[in-house]
Each structure stands twice: as structure tokens, then as C-alpha cells.
Amino acid sequence: MTIRNARHPFYDFCDQALADIRRQGRYRTFTPLARQAARYPVYEEELNAVPDGREVVVWSSNDYLGMGVEPEVCEAAISAIREHGAGAGGTRNIAGTGPWHKALEAELASLHGKEAGLLFVSGYVSNQASLQTILTSMPGWICFSDRQNHASMIAGIKGARGSQTVIYEHNDLADLEAKLAAAPADAPKLIAFESVYSMDGDISDIAGTCALARKYGAMTYIDEVHAVGLYGEEGGGVTQRDGVADQVDIIEGTLAKGFGVHGGYITASAQIVDYLRSSASGFIFTTSLPPSVVAAALASVKLVRSQNWRREKIFERVNTFRAKMRAAGVPFTMTPSHIVPVPVGDAERCKTISRRLLNDYGLYATPINYPTVARGTERLRLTPGPFHTDEMMDRMVEALGVLLAEVPVPSSGQTPVDKAA
Ligand SMILES: Cc1ncc(COP(=O)(O)O)c(C=O)c1O
Fold first, then answer.
1. Model-level pTM?
2. Counting C-beta atoms within 10 Å of the first and last residue's C-beta, which end of the chain has fewer, N or C?
3. Which helix (H) or strand (E) holds 145?
4. Residues with Cβ within 6 A of ligand 1?
5. What is the mean pLDDT of each run of 10 residues along the chain (421 residues)?
6. Which member of 257, 302, 351, 419 is catalytic?
């Protein structure tokens, strides 16, 4: 047990900051749920730490296609562990590169039609390390960053000392163009944006953004984390679906969502990948992904590329769910993606509805509150997947209908103290 050093002010700072976070209804509580691989999206809630708890149907997983429970993917991980052991044993430079790392990088490069690929230990790290390294490489970089870019992109952009950041309004190409036009013509420029924005479920205009990049001599960097596996004829993301992958300089993705495993990556030209491989601290100085993870991810990417039925199935399920919600008069935000946000509008109400979904109905949907989304736009974010049955959907629609009517919006406009904390 750590002995408290009462003299150091950081302890008091933590107490104060946590009290503030609780008062604002932002205190984070985790819900431990054990995924049942053979029955996904069924999980078990381990009540009072007793195994074999209650069954819960999860509606918030980012394993969108269920690839993390696909037997071929799991078998690839198990046999890699048997053959090569549990961990990678080193960084990529220090005995941590196996043939499977290179095979997966080649597979990802081919998926996105790029010359080369580079693996990172997570999607977060791929964004943070790549953006920071690029934007500190030459003097004078200006990064044009969409206002709603993910925290990992912001971390990389903010960490690039010496570069300038210009934030443009979300998906607003007129604003982007005005800001590009106002920048010095000879400055090296990078436009950083996403394809599918995961909280609102909207999709950017990639062709339009690339046209502006060409007009103003900017490079483009896109995060396809919520799109890979799901969009495009082989799951190459929205860039593949829209036929614009060749117009984007750097495509970043994750192996942890549509591919259901773990890890992040970028794909780009051979020299950009080679430069990042040789310069990005977040790539060089960390133990590489273990063989089991890489083998599973490789199996998953290959399956997802070749099996279009998985993409057809998820969109059929999403459309069926929306039709059921509509028929029952349960409000949701219509999006052009697979994401179904249910607006709730208040942090405490959002947590209460989420808690009651779990306690009363055995359904789990994560409450999405500030700072992940702006105050007043709190929501439940539902991700129907290929294995959500009609019966599961009927239950969720019924439960939401009851709870949205029963749980009132607090009238004070002030977020009450988090009673669950
Ligand atoms: C847009 C976006 N980019 C990157 C990441 C990080 O990916 P990973 O979970 O693989 O670290 C996330 C994670 O949720 C994300 O939403």
C-alpha cells in the first residue's frame, strides 16, 4: 500500500479535482462485463465478483463485426502463442519483429492501395506518434485540424512543438478553404481529419477535402478507425468506398474495432513509412505487438477483406434496428454510418438510463457524457452488430421507450452530483 506523503500538494490536488469531477457528473465508473465468445453480443455481469453472473446484451461494442470472437481469428492467436510464446520480447528493433509483423504491414498497405504500412501498439499511439513526428520534422508546419478530431490526433498535434495549429469547423470545407487561403502559400501544410466521426456518426467529404489539399498544396492525413472493415468493397474504409484512397497521403486505422483484435497502423508512401519507422518515438521505443495479436489481426483482415457478407449483415441489422425504433416512436439521430446515437441531453439522466437499462433489462449501452461530447448533447451510443437478433432489438426498443419517458430531464439545468460515484 502506498504511504501517503501528506506534505506533497499533489495529493490535495487530486482530492479536489476528483470532487469537482464528481460534482459535474463526470466521474467515470467501469462496468465489468465478461464477453462470452460463443454467444456474442452476450456478456456476463460478474455480480459481487461471483462468476457465472447475469447475462447482459451489450449494445456499445466497437468490435463492430464480431471479428474478436471469430473462431479462425481466435485460433490464429492460440496457435501463435503455442508456437512463439506470449509476448513479443522486445521493440521492433530489438528482436521484436517477426515475419507476421511484416506480413500484416504488407496486407494493410495492400488493403489501402499504399506502398507501405507500419504497425503501432494501438490506434491512439499511431495517431499521436505519427502526427507529432511529421509536424516536428521540418520547420514551419501548419496543421489544419477538424474541430472534432479524436483525442489521439489532438495529442499528436499539440505535442508537435514549433508547428502551428489551425482548427477548422467540423466537416466545414468553406471554413477549411478560408483558413488554407489565409495561410502563407509556402508553409508546409497538413490537413488532419477523420472519415467516420464515432460520436455523431457523420462522415466527412474526403474528395472535397483532398481537392482543397491539392489546390493549396497541403498533405492529407485521415483517421479511418471507425470505418476500416465496414466500408469499401474489401473493408478499406470510406476512402475505398469513395474511390479516393490514392488522393490521401496517409491513411491511419486500428485493428481493434472493425477487425476486432488490437493495434494501430498507418499506410502511406514507402518514404513516409520509412521516415516514421526511423523517427517516431512512439514506434521505436516500445515493445512491439505480441505474435498472437498480430497473427489474429492478420487472419481477421484477410477474412474481412474477402467476405462481403459481414458488411452486408451489419448494415442490414442497423437498418432493421432503426426501422424498429422509428415504428415505436423512440427518438434517435439518423446518421449516414452504422452508429445510432440516442439523444439524452443531460449527464445524470444519461447515466441513470444506462444504469437502469443494465439493472432492469440486462442491456448495456455506455453513457456518453462531457468531455467526450459537448454538454447538452449527452447520449447513448448504440452500435448494432451482425449478431444482434430481432428479439434483442425488440427488447432494447421497448426498454428505451419506457426509460426515456420515465427518467425526467433535470429542470435546474445544473448537473447534480453523481450519486453512482
Ligand atoms: C477516431 C479514433 N481514433 C483513434 C482511436 C484509438 O484507437 P485504439 O482504440 O486502437 O487505440 C479511437 C478510439 O476509440 C478513435 O475513436
1. 0.94
2. N
3. strand 142-146
4. 122-124, 127, 150, 152, 194, 198, 223, 225-226, 254, 256, 264
5. 73 96 84 93 79 86 98 98 96 94 98 98 98 98 98 98 97 98 98 97 98 98 98 98 98 98 98 98 98 98 97 98 98 98 93 95 93 91 97 98 92 40 23
6. 257
